[in-house]
Write a structure and sequence with these properties.
- The protein is α/β, with parallel strands linked by helices.
- It has one domain: Ribonuclease Z/Hydroxyacylglutathione hydrolase-like (Metallo-beta-lactamase, Chain A, 4-Layer Sandwich).
- It is 19% helix and 27% strand.
- It has seven helices and twelve strands.
- The strands form two sheets. It has a seven-stranded mixed sheet. A five-stranded mixed sheet has the order 8-9-10-11-12, covered by helices on one side.
- Strand 5, helix 3 and strand 6 form a beta-alpha-beta unit.
- The longest helix is centred in the last third of the chain and has 14 residues.
- It is globular.
Length: 257
């Protein structure tokens, strides 16, 4: 069966590019898309993440945020309400990916065991990304804990891609374009550029196959997960874009505009 994957942008949040292209391009501001993704073509309504909103993110992230639309407004454009959501595949449990989970009262919420265990007792450097009240909301949901790779339906596969967090997962979906991978790691399109093509000649990072994100519980593991999804995908969709909305297309690499 072939599906389609639709990015739905709720807003944006400011950041520095070096947070997503490890140790490279510091001081270059960009805006991340705050987004979730809808898998169309299945018998059930499936979302990947649920995004967040500016006032909530401001409690846990120093970048300036802006809202484009609410979660409810975005679903209404699809002819749905939060009660219509059957499944939420959670890329990881950071606040900007689960902000609207609690509104989807009927949804099964898929999370890696390693992610759930870490979220309940995070390292101090990571604790602000896992607010306790939000973790309590997840605990009260219809939580489905999985371990490792998992076939949700034929043509929709959850892939464990740790490093950004212990239980980060990406989603590989069969589409007419081939294997479309929504990357669960905190990534942008620039994360997956070939360093040799965008860094000055002779740069010491030019031998890398990809960059990786700087926020990580295991930076070496995060690198190999980025390599894994880049090799796997015919179409690669990083979870933070940018470019899912007209207001953030200008932050795409020039080759993708």
């Amino acid at each position: 069966m072939e599906y389609t994957v639709k990015p739905i942008c709720l807003g944006q949040i400011g950041a520095d590019q070096s947070g997503f292209t490890y140790m490279a391009f510091p001081g270059i501001p960009l805006f991340l898309d705050v987004a979730y993704f809808m898998i169309k073509g299945a018998e059930k309504t499936i979302l990947i993440d649920t995004g967040s909103w500016a006032a909530l993110m401001a409690k846990y992230w120093p970048g300036k945020g802006e809202d484009f639309q609410t979660f409810e407004e975005s679903l209404e454009k699809e002819g749905m309400t939060p009660d219509d959501v059957d499944i939420i595949i959670t890329s990881h449990l950071h606040h900007d990916h689960i902000g609207n989970h609690f509104k989807c009262k009927n949804a099964e919420v898929y999370v890696q065991v390693d992610e759930w265990d870490f979220a309940r007792a995070p390292h101090p450097l990571q604790a602000q990304y896992y607010p306790k009240d939000m973790m309590d909301q997840i605990a009260d949901s219809n939580l489905k804990l999985i371990r490792g790779d998992y076939e949700l339906f034929p043509g929709i596969r959850i892939v464990h891609t740790p490093g950004h967090t212990p239980g980060t997962q990406s989603i590989c979906v069969d589409t007419k374009e081939g294997k479309t991978v929504v990357v669960g790691q905190c990534s942008i399109y620039q994360t997956f550029e070939s360093p040799a093509e965008v860094l000055p000649e002779g740069h010491p990072f030019a031998q890398w196959e990809v960059f990786t994100q700087s926020i990580a519980t295991d930076i070496n593991q995060a690198y190999w997960s980025c390599v894994q999804v880049k090799r796997m995908a015919d179409v690669l969709i990083p979870c933070h874009g940018p470019g899912f909305d007209e207001r953030t297309k200008k932050y795409l690499p020039e080759s993708m505009q």
